[in-house]
């Protein structure tokens, strides 16, 4: 299913949505933090999505357990390092790991700027130790409002040489892109590339805003683009890629049935779409699972799946030379 002759990448992968239940449980024991259940076995189902949630916000609540145990920088280092071990276990050749400094720091009021530094150190060490190429994407968690996001941005920009891009994640419906124009101008001026969660909980206008107001060259999820043919054409003509995460889209109830996922329509229309996991530990999936969904449920053949792998490389926030080196 995976073409081993081609690089396997995952560019939409939340480090803070990929904390293994075992690590959450162990860190909770160490720091005397209460979790549901009396054992790892009892806790694990609480930390993973079962079937489908009612909406995006219900899905995102599941990520709260992971960040609730980040009691100190050792814990932050551990979960960031383990993310690279997990990328290796999932056979990834290259991954862009994204994280929200505020979300990771908030339970124990850790210093956000230092947190960015610790995550970057841990991921660099993991990258060396496990032989997986990585880059980091900083996230502004829109759910916490514009002021917190500005502080979060400053923490990210304090280490802008260690972060390749900026993303906007969280509650898309209640915190539209229009509120974050200044943040993204500042990030672009500092040389960061831009990807934005859009068209997941809101409609196609949210994707237009991500592109026109925030400068996104990649769109996270982008499911709602299916409703706007002009937008689909625009994505093709301007090589704006869609980071597709089918299982996540089902679990957040962005689509009601996995068979209705627009991956096929995007692909056939010529959009540079590719497969990603989003929050693998919370969704209880790996990247191979997403290729399996594309093949077995959405009817992609081997050559089409290979093209999806190539689309991922094309969309990566890497120089042409770095992309070549992946092959
Ligand atoms: N943070 C983690 N996963 C997310 C998603 N699917 N949408 C928005 N924010 C997120
Ligand atoms: Zn995401």
Structure overview:
- The protein has a single domain, classed as Metal-dependent hydrolases (TIM Barrel).
- Helix content is 48%, strand content 13%.
- It is built from 17 helices and 8 strands.
- It has helices at residues 21-30, 40-47, 56-61, 64-68, 73-89, 101-105, 112-130, 145-157, 181-189, 204-212, 229-237, 246-251, 263-269, 280-283, 287-296, 302-315, 320-326; strands at 9-14, 94-99, 133-141, 165-169, 193-198, 218-221, 241-244, 273-275.
- The protein has an 8-stranded parallel sheet, with helices on both faces.
- Helix 8 links the parallel strand 3 (133-141) and strand 4.
- The longest helix has 19 residues, at 112-130.
- 50% of the residues are buried.
- The structure holds adenine and zinc ion.
- Residues 12, 14, 169, 197, 220, 278 line the site of zinc ion.
Please outline what is shown here.
By secondary structure, the protein is of the alpha/beta class.
Relevant terms:
327 residues; alpha/beta; TIM Barrel; 8 strands; 13% strand; globular; binds zinc ion
Mean pLDDT: 98
How many structural domains can be distinguished in the coordinates?
Answer: 1
Strand order in the largest sheet: 1-2-3-4-5-6-7-8
In CATH terms, what is the fold-level topology?
A: TIM Barrel
């Amino acid at each position: 299913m995976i073409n081993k002759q081609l690089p396997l990448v995952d560019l939409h992968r939340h480090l803070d949505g990929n904390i293994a239940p075992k690590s959450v449980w162990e860190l909770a024991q160490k720091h005397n933090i209460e979790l549901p259940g009396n054992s790892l076995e009892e806790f694990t189902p609480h930390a993973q999505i079962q079937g489908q949630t009612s909406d995006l916000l219900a899905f995102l609540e599941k990520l709260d357990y992971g960040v609730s145990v980040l009691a100190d920088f050792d814990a932050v280092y551990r979960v960031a390092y383990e993310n690279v071990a997990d990328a290796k276990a999932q056979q990834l050749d290259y991954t862009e790991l994204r994280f929200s400094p505020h979300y990771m720091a908030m339970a124990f009021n850790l210093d956000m700027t230092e947190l960015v530094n610790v995550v970057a150190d841990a991921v660099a060490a993991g990258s060396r130790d496990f032989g997986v190429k990585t880059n980091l994407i900083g996230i502004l968690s829109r759910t916490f409002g514009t002021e917190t996001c500005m502080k979060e941005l400053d923490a990210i920009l304090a280490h802008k040489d260690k972060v390749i891009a900026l993303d906007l994640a969280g509650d898309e419906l209640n915190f539209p892109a229009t509120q974050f124009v200044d943040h993204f101008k500042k990030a672009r001026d500092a040389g960061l590339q831009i990807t934005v969660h859009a068209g997941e909980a809101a409609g196609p206008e949210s994707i237009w805003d991500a592109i026109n107001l925030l400068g996104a060259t990649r769109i996270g999820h982008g499911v709602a683009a299916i409703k706007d043919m002009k937008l689909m054409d625009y994505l093709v003509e301007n090589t704006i890629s869609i980071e597709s995460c089918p299982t996540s889209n089902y679990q957040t109830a962005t689509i009601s049935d996995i068979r209705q996922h627009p991956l096929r329509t995007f692909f056939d229309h010529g959009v540079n779409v590719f497969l990603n996991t989003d929050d693998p530990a919370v969704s209880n999936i790996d990247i191979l699972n997403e290729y399996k969904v594309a093949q077995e449920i959405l009817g992609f053949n081997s050559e089409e799946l290979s093209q999806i792998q190539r689309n991922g490389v094309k969309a990566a926030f890497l120089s042409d030379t770095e992309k070549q080196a992946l092959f």
